[in-house]
Write a structure and sequence with these properties.
Layout: H1 2-12, H2 14-34, H3 38-41, H4 46-61, H5 77-81, H6 90-109, H7 111-115, H8 119-126, H9 138-144, H10 152-178, H11 188-213
Helix pairs in contact: 4-10, 6-9, 6-11, 8-10, 10-11
Amino acid sequence: MTIIKCVIALWCSPFSSAFMLAPRRLDSQVKQVSTIPLSMAMEESRRDFIRSTATGMFAIGTIAQPVSAVMMSVDDPVIKVFNSGQALGKDLAIERFKLARDDLNYLLKNYGEISAGGGDSVRRYLGTVGVTSGLYGITKVLKELQDEADDFVEYTENMNEFDAYLRQADTSCYSANFVEFSAAKTKPEKFLDDAKSDAEQMKKRLNAMAAELKL
């Protein structure tokens, strides 16, 4: 008799009611999901998907710009152009793109002489130290021009690869500055050579994006 009472009590308890209702609620949710047309699920275009992906990647991968060795005014027009939340506009972005390409070509053409000054000397041309290089703020420039590309997807892929090589080159140059003071056997020249290889890959991607922009 006691067992029967326990069973009845358990059956009538709030826990039992919640347990019995849970499958019904789940079944209702499944029905709601299943009624969404497949066409709606596929409605987001490839362009929008890649735009959101690229935005996330650049938010993670953007290089923090170190303080320049040369003191510059906060009112410097180059710095003000890249204020957070301020759009560059197509014309200025194209101008900055061309400057970046020129400085990257100059860096590669004169790499031996420039790299002789050490890792930071190369980084100044990469735009990751100081604000004097045409490559300074290049991430924002490339993002600004995405919608101008003939093939948005192709442009975005090259943009992401460019950013990855830029970060690798910057890391190699930074390592070259300190390797002589570490126990590592790697010479600074090895890191600087790696940075040059990355810069050459950057040039390929930048030229590919230029072709998409008809520049």
